[in-house]
Inverse folding.
């Protein structure tokens, strides 16, 4: 099922780039039609109140600080997945297997959610692993914003692992743009958005639970 949506030659190019610089992005990895369908599903789920305000930290230390992290999220899991979400989960499982084959990462699972940033929201600079944990190995992001304009902001800013004030890349959240990067290496932030900003975000992990 997932082979219909994946551009395998583009995936090979992405893996070559990931091997060279520990991050990569592509506008050709998944079909625009599939991404457009995911965007519509995200919109519908947000409209019916399925999203919850995102928090920072983990466990008993979880807190909500909208001035630090302003998005709302909806976790996607196999048990409750719609057919379209199940197709995305299948694609991610294929990607996990191919990452293990190419990079010997020992990935066991992934976690993923829809993310919705309303106008005025952002996410301050951070690393994707929780303090004291290195379970997240590869971060992935699929952007779901058609006709995104530069004045809408909302870019992903990726910073140098050894100098977090040095900007490496600024990626616009255009529909179908797919990003992979090493979760443990790159400080990154979501710039303030001036329009509704939709994505699917998650992490490939080396822990089994």
């Amino acid at each position: 099922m997932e082979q219909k949506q994946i551009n395998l030659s583009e995936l090979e190019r992405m893996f070559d780039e990931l091997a060279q610089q520990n991050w990569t992005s592509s506008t050709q990895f998944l079909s625009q039609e599939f991404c457009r369908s995911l965007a519509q599903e995200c919109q519908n789920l947000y409209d019916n109140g399925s999203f919850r305000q995102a928090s920072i930290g983990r466990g008993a230390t979880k807190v909500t600080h909208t001035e630090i992290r302003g998005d709302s999220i909806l976790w996607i899991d196999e048990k409750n997945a719609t057919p379209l979400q199940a197709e995305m989960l299948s694609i991610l499982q294929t990607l996990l297997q191919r990452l293990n084959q190419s990079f010997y990462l020992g990935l066991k699972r992934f976690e993923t959610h829809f993310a919705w940033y309303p106008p005025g929201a952002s996410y301050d600079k951070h690393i994707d692993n929780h303090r004291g944990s290195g379970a997240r190995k590869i971060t992935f992001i699929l952007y779901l914003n058609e006709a995104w304009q530069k004045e809408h902001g909302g870019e992903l800013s990726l910073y140098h692992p050894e100098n977090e004030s040095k900007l490496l890349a600024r990626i616009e959240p255009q529909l179908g743009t797919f990003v992979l990067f090493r979760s443990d290496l790159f400080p990154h932030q979501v710039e303030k958005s001036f329009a509704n900003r939709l994505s699917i975000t998650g992490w490939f992990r080396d822990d089994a639970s």
User: Anything to note?
Assistant: The longest strand covers residues 109-117. Residues 1 and 148 are 29 Å apart (CA to CA). The two ends are 26 Å apart (CA to CA).
